[in-house]
Design goal:
By secondary structure, the chain is mainly alpha-helical. It is built from seven helices and no strands.
Length: about 150
Amino acid sequence: MLMKNQQNQTYKKYVEARAKKSSLGINFLFAFLIGGLICVFAQGLLNLYTHIGLAEETAKAGVIITLIFITALLTGLGLFSKIAKRAGAGTFVPITGFANAIAAPAIDSKAEGWILGLGAKIFVIAGPVILYGTLASVVYGVIYYIVKLIGG
C-alpha cells in the first residue's frame, strides 16, 4: 500500500509539473462568450426563419436542424474540437454539445466499418444521456400522474 501511495504521489507531481496552467477567469470568459455567441446565432436563425414566413414551431425545428448540421460539419472538419478547446463548456450548449457527442465517435470509429465501428460506437458518449434522460422523463411523468390523481 505504501509503495502504491508513493507511486501516486510521484505521478501527481509529474502531472502538476507538465500540466498547462490555465486562468479560471479567462476560461469562464471564453465559455460565456462562445456559449453566448452560439445562442445569439440560434436566435438570429429563429428570427430569419420566422421572417421568411415559417411558422414558429417549424422555425424552431429549423434552428435545431441547422445547429446540428453545422456542429456535425465542424466536428467532421476538426474545427469543433479547436473551438471547444478554447471555449470549454461554452460549446456544450445542449444542441451543439449533443450533436458533437454523436458525431465525434461516429467519425472516430468509421475506419472500423459500418457495423463494428460506426454502428457500435456512435452512441458511446450520447447513449447514457439518452438513457438517463428518457428514464428521468418517465419518472417525472409517473410522479406528475400520481400528483394529478391525488390533487384532482
